[in-house]
């Protein structure tokens, strides 16, 4: 039995919707054409504003900026995943003295804007005698914010699993740590993989905020080349188009990876047989 949550549009409504869709698409196309024409009129795509691409030193600095962006992303992603897994397990603990502080930490770092955390670690801590590099401040901020979000993702994934999974594991004599590590968490990771990859895409784009604390990542490189290159007519628009294209490419790679892993998991699903001898508690029974 299906439940309809809206009124099915009639003939007049369908015609009205089609007209609105055509008008909306036409308005978007008109806006794009207008912007492109303004770019052409102001010579944003002139050869002079594109000459910067041919300079080897600029190309090398671009490679360095991409490397810095990927470094912050890689370290931040690994730490955020670890942070999320640990605090998801803590939030599911049977002990209130573990569960309550973990919930407070997760909610606090989810609520604080990422920029504020970066400013606190880079500009605030030195006043207390603790000096962090821009890279460290970016990575720690990414870990705390995105790790808190991932903790909720992992917790939701674990809670969505059938209760029989954990009950069967407990019946085999496994401890709660073993149940969480070997039974629940791997299944939650597979179930929540699209959401996890989506959050990692957010983490990748969040690395761009590092330019606010002088971290030499891709966006800071773009603002420096685009705004401080008078010999090339200050090619901010062309540089930002290149920067945006690189970010789009990196995000598409992550999306492709998520699709590949999801298909592989569906294709390679197998039943794993576990012998009682493999479990220390059962071997002695």
From TrEMBL:
It is found in: Cell membrane. One of its GO terms (cellular component) is ATP-binding cassette (ABC) transporter complex. It is a multi-pass membrane protein. Pfam families: BPD_transp_1 (PF00528). Its main location: membrane. GO terms for biological process: amino acid transport. The chain crosses the membrane at residues 21-41, 70-90, 102-123, 135-158, 237-261. GO terms for molecular function: transmembrane transporter activity. Residues 66-258 form the ABC transmembrane type-1 domain. It comes from the Bacteria. The keyword Transmembrane applies. Belongs to the binding-protein-dependent transport system permease family. This is Amino acid ABC transporter permease. The lineage of its organism: Bacteria, Bacillati, Actinomycetota, Actinomycetes, Pseudonocardiales.
